[in-house]
Design a protein that fits this description.
single chain, 220 residues, alpha/beta, Spore Coat Polysaccharide Biosynthesis Protein SpsA, Chain A, seven-stranded mixed β-sheet, two-stranded antiparallel ribbon, 7 helices, 11 strands, 32% helix, 22% strand, globular
């Protein structure tokens, strides 16, 4: 990463996987969904490990089957299932306590198993201010749950969660300095593939199996 970016973020860089949603459309907890014979959460953890210094899982239920004893499980710090921003706040609070020297925390959702392996490097490289949120995007769409969040925004985020009735992630991002990083699609024999393809329904899971088979076949 450029030297300017190194000065804008304090290492280490922890990550928190947001797995606290209710999975209404899927009908079962997303972390325990099986993709290619492994849990969805294990795919996310494997993709994250080379990019960050530590991983925790934000989960508001019993620990998922894929969570091993070395991965901390953290419940929302605010009650009431207030949406994904409650998970972002939980990530900030966790990092402030567990890794106080870290200036930012990476958050990713638990339902997007093919996200880029250079996600972190490119988000960090895009920073131009220290208290700036770096957000991924692709195909003209922002992915606000793939972002680097300054831990120092925690108090403002908690106040906003308690006062804003809609609690939209993009609305909170717009309150602060931010930069959007566009990631390209990948061309495959099956067509263009968006690395932020996410699994929300059983049909999506079937499609994810097809993509996984294609990618694994290309590696063989």
């Amino acid at each position: 990463m450029p030297d300017t970016s190194r000065r804008l973020i304090s290492e280490p860089l922890p990550a928190v996987i947001l797995a606290g949603g209710l999975s209404r459309r899927m009908g079962s907890p997303k972390p325990d969904l099986h993709l290619g014979g492994r849990t969805m959460l294990s795919h996310i953890i494997e993709r994250l490990r080379p990019q960050v210094t530590s991983i925790a899982v934000n989960l508001n239920a019993e620990p998922a089957d894929a969570v091993d004893g070395n991965t901390p499980v953290i419940a929302d710090t605010v009650p009431g299932f207030l949406g994904p921003l409650a998970g972002v706040l939980t990530a900030m609070r966790h990092v402030a306590g567990a890794t106080p020297e870290a200036s930012h925390v990476l958050v990713v959702p638990t339902d997007t198993p093919f996200f880029p392996d250079d996600l972190v490097a490119r988000l960090i490289a895009a920073l131009t201010q220290r208290q700036q949120i770096a957000v991924a995007a692709s195909v003209g769409q922002m992915h606000p749950l793939f972002a680097l969040w300054p831990v120092a925004l925690a108090d403002d985020l908690e106040n906003w969660l308690m006062s804003d009735p809609k609690r939209r992630v993009r609305a909170f991002i717009e309150r602060h300095a931010s930069v959007t990083v566009d990631f390209p699609v990948t061309m495959t024999p099956k067509g263009a593939f968006d690395p932020f393809f996410n699994v929300n329904t059983p049909a999506d899971l079937t499609e994810a199996e097809e993509w996984l088979s294609l990618f694994e076949g290309r590696k063989a």
